[in-house]
Specification:
This protein is α/β, with parallel strands linked by helices. The chain is built from 13 helices and 8 strands. It has helices at about 5-20, 25-40, 45-55, 65-75, 80-105, 125-135, 145-155, 170-180, 195-205, 220-225, 225-235, 250-265, 275-290, and strands at about 115-120, 140, 160-165, 185-190, 210-215, 240-245, 275, 295. The mean pLDDT is about 90.
Amino acid sequence: MEFQHRMLRAVVAGIVDKALRDLPRDPKRSLRNLVDLGDSCAKGPQQKLFFARAHAALQSPASPYYQLAADAVNWVDPRALRAMGVNLGASGLTWGVGRLRQEEAARGGHLPWMLLLDGPARADSPVPREANALGCYTFVLRGADAREACALAARWPESAFFAELPAAQITPETAALLEKAPNLAVSVDVTPETDASEAFGLLHAARRFYGFAAACTSRTADALLDGAFLDRMRAGHCLYGCFRCPTGEPALEDRLCRTVNGDRGRRKGRPLLLIDFRRDVQSVAEAVSPGSRALRVNPALPLGPQLSPRSENVI
């Protein structure tokens, strides 16, 4: 790791540690201070717009995001909050962004800020090493089992990983493995019919950083976007919910977008961060480097040949 990168991580770690101390006492002031700091470091109109929206979401004293921040501090192992905060805030979206832009200028083409590793992901996957060298430190794992996800995240402690795992894979053994990978968040894959209460209970007892992931289709949309389902996820101590929508269904995509944006715009309500996976990932990509895309790659293959955006691998 380069000296400047190491120093940046140390600075951000200090900021995160202070926030973790201050949030239980005064979550409103502490969260606003974090957004102010991010705004002061933002570069470019897209990043400024992101923090302007964050400020707007915190204007109401009853904003659910204050409760969400307090819940995260109360529920999650501080090592996990620190690891995810530093890996996303320093390596992923600050140092990494600068490196990505340098590499893009040298190569004359766009590079992804995030990669979806689609398929079994062994600890010796060549992708994270090559991605880190380019400035990409954020990975979503889809198709890896719990052991693979933990081993891969533990090998790359400066990166942030989000693993989509079936509820059946969350066992006491899994919960113990996750303690060795604080830089790994778990998105429990659910359907409207899934009883994930046992999985959520194990993750909550182990103080893991977790939420849910769900495929929003024409068959499942009514149930998934219903308040009762979201209340059930909240009751399971989920901090976030990530919806993925099939391509080629614009009406469904627009409905999901309206639901997610409407929930975020509430001045009070459910403390649960909803994510429209494709649109939100692309929104960050535009803020990082206008015109860039996040990509789906095979974790078993070298990254270089997979970097050319094609219709089948663009998220």
